[in-house]
Structure formats: C-alpha cells, structure tokens
Specification:
The chain is built from ten helices and nine strands. It is an alpha/beta fold and about 325 residues long. The protein has a seven-stranded mixed beta sheet with strand order 5-4-3-6-7-9-8, sandwiched between helices. Strands 1-2 form a two-stranded antiparallel sheet.
C-alpha cells in the first residue's frame, strides 16, 4: 500500500470515529474565512472611497486655485491684497521717496546672493521698502553662531536653510511681496537659471572671494546692475563706509585680469583692520563699557565727511 493510500485510509477512519468534531472544525474554518473576506472587502471599499474623495477634492482645488511656478521652480504664493492697506504700510516710504519713487521701488525685482549677516539685512530693508519681488539665493543653514548677526533668524530656526527662514519671516511682515527662496550654491552651471528673469538689481552678499568674483564677472558681462559688499572683518567704524566704483577697492587686482577695470558699484570701508581682542570681562566684573566707543570722534568724522561731499556736489553744479 502506498503512502497516499495509507493517508487516505487514516483520514477516512478518523472522520468515521469523530464526525461531530470534524463538522465543528469545518464550520469554524468557514466562519473565519467569511469574516476575513468581509473585513478585507470593507477595507478595500473604504480605501476606494477615500481615494475617490481625495481625487475629487484635488480636482476641485485645481480648478479653484492653480499653483504657479517661478523661473527657478519655486512656488509663487503671490495673492491679491488690498491696495489701500499696502499704501498705508508704505506711507512713510512715500513721504520720503514720493509717489513716483515708491512706484518705481514697488515695480522692482531684486536678486540677493548670500543670506547671512549682509544679505539678510539687505533683503529685510528691500522688503520693508515694498520691492515687489525678491529672490534670495544661499545654500547654507542657520547656525547658533550666526544668530548674532542675522536679520530674522531665531533660535528655533537653527538647522533650517537661511533662505527658507527668511521667506517664512517675511510672510509675516509684508505678505504682498513675492519672495523666492533658492537653496542652492551659485556656480557656472546654474548661474543663468538663478539670475534669470531680468532683475533690476543684483546684490552680492557673498563671503567667498572666488564666488564673488565669478558673480561680478557674470553681471558685468550680462550688463546686470550689481552692487557688491566688500569684507568688513575687524572693522567697527560706520563713518568709514563708502559706496564707490570697484576700481577703488582691493578686489580690482583680481578683476583687472578678467578685463574689468571699472563700472561695478561696491560698498566698502576705508577703515584699516586692526587686531581685535575680547575684553577680559571675567577679571573685571564691574566693567561697564560705553554704548559707543569714541562717540565724539565718530561724530566729528561723520560731519567732516558729509561736509566734504556737499562741497564737491555744489561745486560740480
């Protein structure tokens, strides 16, 4: 007798001896299978219902509100705001610049490369001036050490991209300004894309000299108006800050080799860097530094510089 025949015979004998047990077992199995089938069918129907509902909602949302992308792939969240509220927020700007000047600023598109201690403040001032469109480019993240000089970053922003932090804060200050955050490092491969869109002005707030030179060269060749921020390390005298042509700065030595002798505006300081040491405050617990070091001398230099500029201007007239 083969194995199959022996197995079949054993099963038959078991069924004859225990018919009730077998019947109960089969009933339990059938009930379990029916229950499982019912649950799976219900779950499948629920998933299909949710999927259909979600598709309908997306289709309805797409019909009501389309998402526009800027030239650099950033979602444009520009909405329509009450012009009266915008005019009220910018009323002091209008008092200073006039209607025509304010309108010119409002219609501007400015790109800021670098979102650190220089770029973030430049972006904030442009925002509060009502510039219609601002694009901020930086690949770096907010760090603890950058909180002392960043315009809008807070402790909870540490670890987040600087440009994303700026965009989120700017929404709460002037939501009518379109802010594009580009988390990227400017280089030869993406410069055409990042600086595209016919900007009215480009602000160079880069702290890397090689990237700074590349940006200035690109703007010079493409005839894009650009103003570049020079280094200010170990400098503390605001009266020495000047805006002049690139030919009057140290960077001209690098640019001269690239054929750029003049024609680029820069913000720089004539102050000579000096060796800076931290005061040993731990050894002098009662030390109370003055709010401004050498305040009187500072005022004298500011007055002298303003007088010199006014004299030159009126002589030219």
């Amino acid at each position: 007798m083969t194995f199959i025949e022996r197995f079949t015979d054993s099963v038959s004998q078991f069924l004859e001896k225990h018919p009730q047990t077998v019947q109960l077992t089969l009933t339990a199995i059938a009930a379990s299978a029916l229950t499982a089938t019912s649950i799976l069918t219900y779950q499948s129907n629920q998933r299909q219902s949710r999927a259909k509902s979600l598709k309908d909602e997306l289709k309805e949302a797409e019909q009501k509100n389309t998402i526009d992308l800027t030239s650099v792939g950033v979602a444009s969240t520009q909405r329509k705001y009450d012009d009266a509220l915008i005019q009220e927020q910018l009323s002091k700007n209008t008092a200073l610049l006039g209607e025509a000047g304010t309108r010119k600023v409002r219609d501007s598109f400015v790109i800021i490369v670098g979102a650190g201690g220089v770029g973030s403040w430049a972006a904030l001032m442009l925002l509060q001036s009502g510039v219609k469109r601002i694009r901020i480019i930086d690949f770096d993240q907010v760090t603890l050490s950058s909180l002392n000089r960043h315009a809008v970053a807070r402790l909870e922003d540490v670890g987040t991209p600087k440009v994303r932090c700026i965009k989120n804060r700017f929404k709460k200050i002037a939501p009518f300004v379109e802010v594009e955050d580009c988390i990227d490092l400017l280089n030869a491969d993406n410069v055409d894309e990042l600086l595209g869109g016919n900007p009215d002005y480009v602000i160079d707030a880069i702290d890397n000299i090689n990237t700074k030179i590349d940006l200035i060269k690109y703007c010079y060749d493409k005839k894009l108006p650009v103003i570049s921020s020079m280094g200010a390390g170990a400098k503390a005298d605001p009266s020495r800050i000047q805006i002049a042509d690139i030919s009057e700065t140290f960077v001209r030595q690098r640019l001269k080799k690239l054929g750029i002798l003049k024609g680029v505006q820069v913000a720089y300081s004539t102050e000579k860097p000096h060796h800076v040491k931290l005061l040993p405050l731990a050894e002098y617990p009662d030390f109370d530094p003055l709010p401004v070091k050498l305040r009187e001398g500072l005022y004298v230099r500011v007055h002298r510089e303003l007088f010199s500029r006014e004299s030159k201007r009126y002589k030219q007239r």
